[in-house]
Amino acid sequence: MKKKILFCAMMGISVMAFARVQAVWISTCGVKHYTSFSDTTTYSQMADIIEAINYIECGTKPHVTINP
C-alpha cells in the first residue's frame, strides 16, 4: 500500500514539473503551428511570441488575441 501511494505521489509531482500549455494556431501564411509554453507563461507573453514567430515566417505582424 505504501509503495502505491509513493508511486502516485511521484507521478503527480512529475506531471506538475512538466506542465505545459499547448497552443494551436495558423499563421497568416496558412501554416498550422503547435506551440508549447511553460505553465507560468502569461497570455501577453504567448501573444508576443506568436506575433514574433509569424513575423519571422510570413513578414507580417498581426494582432494576436488569446481566448482562454
Largest sheet: 2 strands, antiparallel
- Proportion of residues in extended strands: 15-25%
Broad structural category? alpha+beta
Poorly predicted spans: 6-16
How many angstroms separate the termini? 39 Å
Molecular structure report:
By secondary structure, this protein is of the alpha+beta class. The protein has two helices and two strands, in the order H-E-E-H. The protein has a two-stranded antiparallel sheet with strand order 1-2. A hairpin with a 5-residue loop joins strand 1 and strand 2. The chain is globular and about 30 Å long. It starts with a helix and ends in a 10-residue tail after the last helix. About 16% of the residues have low confidence.
Which terms would index this structure?
68 residues; alpha+beta; two-stranded antiparallel ribbon
Summarize the structure.
The chain is α+β, with helices and mostly antiparallel strands. The protein has helices at residues 2-17, 43-58, and strands at 20-26, 32-38.
How do the strands and helices of this protein lay out in sequence?
Blueprint: H1 2-17, E1 20-26, E2 32-38, H2 43-58
Antiparallel strand pairs: 1-2
